[in-house]
Amino acid sequence: MITTITLNAAIDQIYQVDRLEREAVNRVKDVHQDAGGKGLNVAKVLKQLGANVDAGGFLGGMNGERIRSLVREKGIADEFIPIAEESRVCLTIMDAETGKGTEFLEGGPVIQDKEWEKMLSWLEKKSKRTKWFALSGSLPQGLPSDAYAQLIDIIQSNGAKAILDTSGEALRHGIEAKPFAIKPNEKELADLLGVPTLSLSLMIEEGHRLVESGIPHVCFTLGGEGAVIVNREGCFRVKAPAVPVKNTVGSGDSFIGGLIQGFTSSQDSFEAYKRAVACGSVNAAHMEIGHVDALEVERMLKEITITEL
């Protein structure tokens, strides 16, 4: 079993327009609604890949019930903890002309201390039965910046493995708990290091430092360029062929889904890296967020190359 945790789940509302224009009337051609939040995107990808996955986190109010319904429609079991405040809505406007999305993300609910205590208690029991966890996305209001570090400590003290995908102070503190793998993108890493831009040499240097600190797999995602991954064996460039991009939103989450599915189905880390990049690339070729086609992923795997840097 794989469990994804989404602390700040959302209704993902996607509007498609021919061309997004500021300070003008934009007519919506198509509307799509789905359960959102990075962890739920990971769960959707894992389900499509045939993995045994369930979802945890917080849900509240009418939006929370809608999210729960959307999750169950996809055949994903849920163990969400109910909260007093309303879960959020996140709007993405897709520009058909450019293939790029503009996101409007609500802050979400404020989590109360007793709700957080319920989460920690649930995880203590859950991590004795589940061996893989994906911790993804922003922290909702009310939680401490070391919330993910607390979760990682519980998970790994019970012999399970945590893969972390977040940013800012949540990432900084999460790194200190030494998860099994992390996945910052270029901007998230630059923000973490306090630099405006990243050179490849700085990325590699930081990757080695993180591995030496106790994180086995450090994955830097590079969008359409694939990923740079550092582990105990060295530093590697994982490159995928170009795909016709329709929507890049959710590609990082698809990367996480492919990575976990790869680790759970194979002892070969490099096959897991290839599967991660394949899933991210396949997602980008579809309009739906967190969507992969398992057959497309298998075809893509044959075209991905890994070279040592």
General description of the model:
The chain has 309 residues and is an alpha/beta fold. It is globular. The chain has helices at 38-48, 61-73, 113-126, 147-157, 168-176, 186-193, 200-213, 251-265, 269-284, 294-301, and strands at 2-6, 10-17, 30-36, 53-60, 77-78, 81-83, 88-95, 100-105, 132-136, 161-165, 181-182, 217-221, 227-231, 234-239, 305-308. Helix 1 (38-48) crosses helix 8 and helix 4 packs parallel to helix 5. The mean pLDDT is 94. Strands 1, 4, 5, 6, 9, 10, 11, 12, 13, 14 and 15 form an 11-stranded mixed sheet that branches.
Outline the fold blueprint.
Blueprint: E1 2-6, E2 10-17, E3 30-36, H1 38-48, E4 53-60, H2 61-73, E5 77-78, E6 81-83, E7 88-95, E8 100-105, H3 113-126, E9 132-136, H4 147-157, E10 161-165, H5 168-176, E11 181-182, H6 186-193, H7 200-213, E12 217-221, E13 227-231, E14 234-239, H8 251-265, H9 269-284, H10 294-301, E15 305-308
Parallel strand pairs: 1-4, 1-9, 2-7, 4-5, 4-6, 9-10, 10-11, 11-12
Antiparallel strand pairs: 2-3, 7-8, 12-13, 13-14, 14-15
Helix pairs in contact: 1-8, 4-5, 8-9, 9-10
Q: What is this structure, in a nutshell?
A:
By secondary structure, the protein is an alpha/beta fold. Helices cover 39% and strands 26% of the residues.
Features of the shown structure:
single chain, alpha/beta, 11-stranded mixed sheet, 4-stranded mixed sheet, 15 strands
Beta content: 25-35%
Please report the number of helical segments.
10
Derived structural class: alpha/beta
Low-confidence runs: none
Major β-sheet annotation? 11 strands, mixed
Number of strands: 15
Ends apart, CA distance between termini: 34 Å
Overall pLDDT confidence? 94
- Element string (H = helix, E = strand): EEEHEHEEEEHEHEHEHHEEEHHHE
Helix content: 25-40%
Shape designation: globular
Radius of gyration: 18 Å
